[in-house]
Amino acid sequence: MVGENRIEPIQAFGLKVISVGFLNPGDKPIIWRGPMLHQIVRQFLGLVEWGRLDYLIVDLPPGTGDIALSLVQTVPLTGAIVVSTPSDVSLQDARKAIEMFRQMKVDVVGVVENMSYFVCPHCSHEVDIFSRGGAEKMAAQFSAPFLGSIELDPEVRKSGDGGKPVVLEGEHSAHAKSIFAFARNVVARVDEIKANAPASVISIQ
Description:
38% of the residues lie in helices and 12% in strands. It has seven helices and seven strands, in the order E-E-H-H-H-E-H-E-E-E-H-E-H-H.
Protein backbone atom coordinates (compact mmCIF):
# COMPACT_ATOMS: atom_id res chain seq x y z
CA MET A 1 0.00 0.00 0.00
CA VAL A 2 1.10 3.59 -0.66
CA GLY A 3 -0.28 6.15 1.78
CA GLU A 4 -3.97 5.91 2.58
CA ASN A 5 -6.13 3.89 0.19
CA ARG A 6 -3.44 3.77 -2.49
CA ILE A 7 -2.07 0.63 -4.13
CA GLU A 8 1.48 0.22 -5.41
CA PRO A 9 1.80 -2.07 -8.46
CA ILE A 10 4.52 -4.70 -8.76
CA GLN A 11 7.28 -3.62 -11.18
CA ALA A 12 9.56 -5.78 -13.32
CA PHE A 13 11.33 -5.34 -16.68
CA GLY A 14 9.92 -1.84 -17.11
CA LEU A 15 6.32 -2.94 -16.57
CA LYS A 16 3.88 -2.21 -13.77
CA VAL A 17 1.36 -4.92 -12.93
CA ILE A 18 -1.59 -5.31 -10.58
CA SER A 19 -3.82 -8.35 -10.24
CA VAL A 20 -6.51 -9.69 -7.95
CA GLY A 21 -4.19 -12.67 -7.59
CA PHE A 22 -1.67 -10.47 -5.76
CA LEU A 23 -4.32 -9.55 -3.21
CA ASN A 24 -5.53 -13.12 -2.74
CA PRO A 25 -2.51 -15.48 -2.78
CA GLY A 26 -2.96 -19.21 -2.35
CA ASP A 27 -5.65 -21.54 -3.64
CA LYS A 28 -8.72 -19.98 -2.06
CA PRO A 29 -11.05 -18.70 -4.81
CA ILE A 30 -12.60 -15.26 -4.97
CA ILE A 31 -16.33 -15.61 -5.52
CA TRP A 32 -17.74 -12.20 -6.39
CA ARG A 33 -20.94 -11.00 -7.94
CA GLY A 34 -21.23 -8.18 -10.48
CA PRO A 35 -21.17 -5.19 -8.09
CA MET A 36 -17.93 -6.39 -6.46
CA LEU A 37 -16.31 -6.93 -9.85
CA HIS A 38 -17.30 -3.42 -10.88
CA GLN A 39 -15.77 -2.04 -7.68
CA ILE A 40 -12.42 -3.81 -8.15
CA VAL A 41 -12.21 -2.45 -11.72
CA ARG A 42 -12.73 1.08 -10.39
CA GLN A 43 -10.15 0.57 -7.63
CA PHE A 44 -7.49 -0.77 -9.98
CA LEU A 45 -7.99 2.15 -12.33
CA GLY A 46 -8.32 4.87 -9.70
CA LEU A 47 -6.35 3.80 -6.64
CA VAL A 48 -3.23 2.21 -8.15
CA GLU A 49 -0.15 4.46 -8.32
CA TRP A 50 0.42 3.98 -12.05
CA GLY A 51 2.44 7.14 -12.64
CA ARG A 52 3.20 7.98 -16.27
CA LEU A 53 2.49 5.13 -18.68
CA ASP A 54 2.96 4.55 -22.39
CA TYR A 55 0.05 2.12 -22.41
CA LEU A 56 -2.40 0.73 -19.88
CA ILE A 57 -3.50 -2.77 -20.87
CA VAL A 58 -6.38 -4.51 -19.09
CA ASP A 59 -6.42 -8.28 -19.54
CA LEU A 60 -10.04 -9.44 -19.41
CA PRO A 61 -11.44 -12.97 -19.01
CA PRO A 62 -13.08 -14.58 -22.05
CA GLY A 63 -16.65 -13.70 -22.92
CA THR A 64 -18.88 -10.68 -22.56
CA GLY A 65 -19.52 -10.71 -18.83
CA ASP A 66 -19.68 -8.16 -16.04
CA ILE A 67 -15.99 -7.17 -16.02
CA ALA A 68 -15.89 -6.21 -19.69
CA LEU A 69 -19.10 -4.24 -19.33
CA SER A 70 -17.85 -2.48 -16.18
CA LEU A 71 -14.61 -1.46 -17.88
CA VAL A 72 -16.38 -0.03 -20.91
CA GLN A 73 -18.77 1.92 -18.68
CA THR A 74 -16.03 3.22 -16.34
CA VAL A 75 -13.39 4.75 -18.61
CA PRO A 76 -12.97 5.83 -22.25
CA LEU A 77 -10.93 3.22 -24.11
CA THR A 78 -8.65 3.55 -27.09
CA GLY A 79 -9.83 0.15 -28.24
CA ALA A 80 -10.12 -3.58 -27.65
CA ILE A 81 -7.89 -6.40 -28.83
CA VAL A 82 -9.84 -9.62 -29.38
CA VAL A 83 -7.80 -12.76 -28.69
CA SER A 84 -8.86 -16.16 -29.99
CA THR A 85 -7.42 -19.56 -30.69
CA PRO A 86 -8.28 -21.06 -34.11
CA SER A 87 -10.85 -23.47 -32.62
CA ASP A 88 -14.52 -23.01 -33.47
CA VAL A 89 -15.57 -22.73 -29.81
CA SER A 90 -13.06 -19.94 -29.13
CA LEU A 91 -14.02 -18.12 -32.33
CA GLN A 92 -17.67 -18.15 -31.29
CA ASP A 93 -16.80 -16.24 -28.10
CA ALA A 94 -14.55 -13.89 -30.08
CA ARG A 95 -17.34 -12.99 -32.50
CA LYS A 96 -19.61 -12.13 -29.57
CA ALA A 97 -16.86 -9.97 -28.08
CA ILE A 98 -16.45 -8.01 -31.32
CA GLU A 99 -20.19 -7.42 -31.50
CA MET A 100 -20.28 -6.31 -27.85
CA PHE A 101 -17.48 -3.77 -28.27
CA ARG A 102 -19.03 -2.38 -31.42
CA GLN A 103 -22.42 -2.01 -29.74
CA MET A 104 -20.66 -0.18 -26.89
CA LYS A 105 -18.93 2.13 -29.44
CA VAL A 106 -15.44 0.83 -28.61
CA ASP A 107 -12.97 0.59 -31.50
CA VAL A 108 -11.70 -2.90 -32.22
CA VAL A 109 -7.93 -2.53 -32.46
CA GLY A 110 -7.83 -5.91 -34.12
CA VAL A 111 -7.87 -9.68 -33.77
CA VAL A 112 -4.94 -11.91 -32.83
CA GLU A 113 -4.79 -15.68 -33.19
CA ASN A 114 -3.14 -17.24 -30.12
CA MET A 115 -1.72 -20.79 -30.15
CA SER A 116 -1.94 -20.58 -33.91
CA TYR A 117 0.69 -23.17 -34.76
CA PHE A 118 3.42 -25.32 -33.22
CA VAL A 119 6.93 -25.64 -34.65
CA CYS A 120 8.46 -29.07 -34.06
CA PRO A 121 11.81 -28.57 -32.26
CA HIS A 122 13.29 -31.59 -34.07
CA CYS A 123 12.34 -31.05 -37.72
CA SER A 124 11.04 -27.43 -37.71
CA HIS A 125 7.77 -28.59 -39.30
CA GLU A 126 4.76 -26.39 -38.46
CA VAL A 127 1.82 -28.29 -36.96
CA ASP A 128 -1.67 -26.77 -36.78
CA ILE A 129 -2.76 -28.31 -33.48
CA PHE A 130 -5.96 -26.27 -33.12
CA SER A 131 -6.42 -25.75 -36.87
CA ARG A 132 -5.12 -22.44 -38.20
CA GLY A 133 -6.35 -19.25 -39.79
CA GLY A 134 -9.79 -19.16 -38.21
CA ALA A 135 -9.16 -15.86 -36.42
CA GLU A 136 -7.84 -14.22 -39.60
CA LYS A 137 -10.95 -15.32 -41.50
CA MET A 138 -13.15 -14.00 -38.69
CA ALA A 139 -11.32 -10.67 -38.74
CA ALA A 140 -11.98 -10.36 -42.47
CA GLN A 141 -15.64 -11.27 -41.91
CA PHE A 142 -16.00 -8.37 -39.44
CA SER A 143 -13.73 -6.01 -41.41
CA ALA A 144 -11.40 -5.88 -38.41
CA PRO A 145 -7.60 -5.69 -38.71
CA PHE A 146 -5.75 -8.98 -38.22
CA LEU A 147 -2.84 -8.33 -35.86
CA GLY A 148 -0.95 -11.60 -36.26
CA SER A 149 -0.55 -15.21 -35.22
CA ILE A 150 1.15 -16.19 -31.96
CA GLU A 151 3.10 -19.43 -31.98
CA LEU A 152 2.27 -22.18 -29.48
CA ASP A 153 5.72 -22.47 -27.93
CA PRO A 154 6.67 -24.40 -24.75
CA GLU A 155 9.50 -21.91 -24.17
CA VAL A 156 6.98 -19.12 -23.66
CA ARG A 157 5.39 -21.11 -20.85
CA LYS A 158 8.75 -22.07 -19.34
CA SER A 159 10.10 -18.53 -19.40
CA GLY A 160 6.90 -17.14 -17.90
CA ASP A 161 6.88 -19.68 -15.08
CA GLY A 162 10.56 -18.94 -14.50
CA GLY A 163 9.95 -15.21 -14.13
CA LYS A 164 11.92 -14.17 -17.22
CA PRO A 165 9.58 -13.62 -20.20
CA VAL A 166 10.85 -14.95 -23.50
CA VAL A 167 10.65 -11.46 -25.06
CA LEU A 168 13.75 -10.54 -23.04
CA GLU A 169 15.69 -12.56 -25.64
CA GLY A 170 14.92 -9.83 -28.19
CA GLU A 171 12.88 -9.62 -31.37
CA HIS A 172 15.27 -11.85 -33.32
CA SER A 173 14.74 -14.77 -30.96
CA ALA A 174 12.94 -17.68 -32.63
CA HIS A 175 10.74 -18.00 -29.55
CA ALA A 176 9.77 -14.32 -29.38
CA LYS A 177 9.47 -13.23 -33.00
CA SER A 178 5.71 -13.84 -33.35
CA ILE A 179 5.06 -11.87 -30.16
CA PHE A 180 7.17 -8.92 -31.33
CA ALA A 181 5.43 -8.92 -34.72
CA PHE A 182 2.05 -8.82 -32.98
CA ALA A 183 3.19 -6.02 -30.65
CA ARG A 184 4.40 -3.87 -33.55
CA ASN A 185 1.02 -4.25 -35.26
CA VAL A 186 -0.79 -3.26 -32.06
CA VAL A 187 1.31 -0.10 -31.66
CA ALA A 188 0.70 0.87 -35.29
CA ARG A 189 -3.06 0.37 -34.92
CA VAL A 190 -3.24 2.34 -31.67
CA ASP A 191 -1.36 5.21 -33.32
CA GLU A 192 -3.82 5.08 -36.21
CA ILE A 193 -6.85 5.18 -33.90
CA LYS A 194 -5.39 8.06 -31.89
CA ALA A 195 -4.59 10.02 -35.04
CA ASN A 196 -8.21 9.74 -36.16
CA ALA A 197 -9.72 10.52 -32.75
CA PRO A 198 -10.93 14.00 -31.75
CA ALA A 199 -8.22 16.03 -30.04
CA SER A 200 -10.36 16.42 -26.92
CA VAL A 201 -10.68 12.67 -26.29
CA ILE A 202 -8.66 11.41 -23.30
CA SER A 203 -8.32 7.64 -23.48
CA ILE A 204 -6.99 4.68 -21.59
CA GLN A 205 -5.29 2.10 -23.82
